[in-house]
Amino acid sequence: MKRPLYTITVVFLLLSSCAQLETNQKTDLAIDTYVPSGDALGLAETRAKEYLVKHREQIGRDTRYLAVQSDTIFSDEIPDLYAKLINSPAVNASDLEDFGNDSELSMYCVNIFDTETEKLVSQEGYAVVDLPGRGKLARFGPYTARYIGSGS
User: What residue ranges of the chain have pLDDT lower than 50?
Assistant: First the structure.
């Protein structure tokens, strides 16, 4: 009698962890929006275009958006940062602890590049604390994009 209950419990836990993983992949990584300098935007767009030319076959034709790191953001550039951090599902406890210890936190601006128009979708990017792995799909605001780091 204990064996079937144990098996059912294990299967349930496995399925629950898979469902949780999918939810995490859909979590918006942006804690706020941010507009980097014109120079940073130009460089990000150029790098995204170069990446697209080099890696078109690898990313496939079904990848509409690329997420390119365009700038580094200082903590004082995001108003009400602590409130945004604690309300973001994408920020982990160690990030909050780091910010709480010295009011500094590594943050990055990620802009979205449209592979069809071969332009950034907007000057406005997304402030992100935890960057996804390079080549991974992630959500930034309303966009699901393949993260390419700073390009190249």
Answer: 6, 9-23
Q: 111 and 34 in contact (C-beta within 8 Å)?
A: no
Query: In Å, how far from its chain's centre is CA 148?
Result: 10
For the entire predicted model, the pTM comes to 0.79
Amino acid code (one letter) for 140: F
Is the CB of residue 105 less than 8 Å from the CB of residue 98?
A: yes
Task: Quote the longest CA-to-CA distance of the chain.
Answer: 68
Distance CA 111, CA 20 (A): 27
Judge whether 43 and 122 are in contact, CB under 8 Å.
no
Provide the H-helix boundaries in the chain.
Answer: 2-25, 38-59, 81-86, 93-102
For 30-59, letters b (16+ CB in 10 Å) and e give bbbebebeeebbebbbebbbebbeebeeeb
**What would the pLDDT profile of 97-124 be if each residue is shown by its tens digit?**
766 666 778 899 999 999 999 999 999 9
List the structure tokens of 61. Answer: 């034709």
Structural domain spans, the chain: 27-73+107-147
